[in-house]
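Hey everyone, long-time lurker, first post.

I ran two proteins through the pipeline my lab uses and got sequence/structure pairs for each. Pasting them in order. The first:
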Amino acid sequence: MKVSISVEHLVNGSGITGVASCGPLAAICGRGHCNDLTVSTTLQSVAFGTEPGLAPLSAPATIEEWWLSAVALGGQGRYAQARAALNVVDRRTAGLAADGDCVYASLSASTRASFLRQTGWHGKASYDDGRALAIVAGRGDSPELVAAACDALTGLAADALGQGRLALGWRLLERCAEQINRLEGESARLWRQVIRLEWVSAELALASGDFTRALRHAERAVELAAGGDSLRHKVKSDLLRCAALTGFDPVQAAMLAGEVFDECRSSGLLPLAWASSMLIEGVSGSPTTPNSAALGAAVAARGGVFRELSL
């Protein structure tokens, strides 16, 4: 029988499927209660909803679904598979000039940058974030274009933070806030961008040693995330609040970070589990179970290439 690499193999690494099989949608997800959902609904639930650890993922078809797959896989720490999904987005949007295609080309670049940044490659990430901003710059003020531009701007601000350029990071966040304010009345459609603005603001404040300001931004992110469905955004907001609390009550910060760690593990959010483990171990001096080294090794096994830090 003729065989080919299936969509499931590319996204989930699940093997080789014969073309005479039931097709790419034979198994929509790993849990029976998802079988009545559309592909987009399932992927949305994993990428920005209540089931971030769901696997295997639905087989994507549209450009949007391929991007959602990349986001979902990245949240699970499956970086190699996530990059493969972004490669599909890049191929399908290459040379196209419609606004919708440019939006996903930009989102692909900024998502790729986030994967680099999460493993310490802030300098490399800045190139992809810069490309993401250039793709949508000057194209208009639709919510979709503004959202993509804001993703790029917050990404660039985080890249600047990772390279010690805090003043530049704040200026980039000011530009992001200006973009959001231009769409007054559309904030509900930019919920993710507003939360990201608070995240990076908190991170910049932490890097500046201003724990009061960091806590204010982190608590605002927690409040905003609580009003939505994305468990991943709620967990990351909680983790940032824990980081800000280390400047006031390290014991409480470590205790709350332990709750975040448990949520990350139960929800399949490996990168955030690793980050919360690093925070707990740094504050308390006691290893988590599994410890940060084991979690980092798991990230590496899924395609996350950590940058070695020179002392």
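...and the second, right after it:
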Amino acid sequence: AFQRELAFRAIGVDVEAQACGGVVDAIEDGDTILAEALVRSHVEALKRKMPDPQAAVLGCTHYPLLEPTFQAALGPNVQVYSQARLVADSLADYLKRHPNMLGTGAGGFLTTGNPARVSDRATQFLRRQIRFDAA
């Protein structure tokens, strides 16, 4: 999806997708060591196809949990764009343009997975108590 969207919006920009098989499973299993090793391996594979990337989009909701690992593997000269940050910035921009949508509201977390398991993993990775409810 990112390749198609960028090809449409940024004509002439070289885009290379890199599947990161196993990373999500390792994150969800709480295996940080495996997840980090897989990230390094996938970044090495990307660099074989594109030796000097200028930017990387972390195109999965799980990947921001390992953003420092991606950044370290990619190197300091590669701009890393986190989907989480992009979505948050986009929402903030939208709310500035639509102040009528602002309100007090209530925060919460929903999952289609097992709420207890997802809560445990989120708490582990974010290092603060997170509670998910069933969607």
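Reply from user beta_strand_b:
Welcome! Quick read of the second one: The chain has six helices and four strands. The chain has a mean pLDDT of 91.
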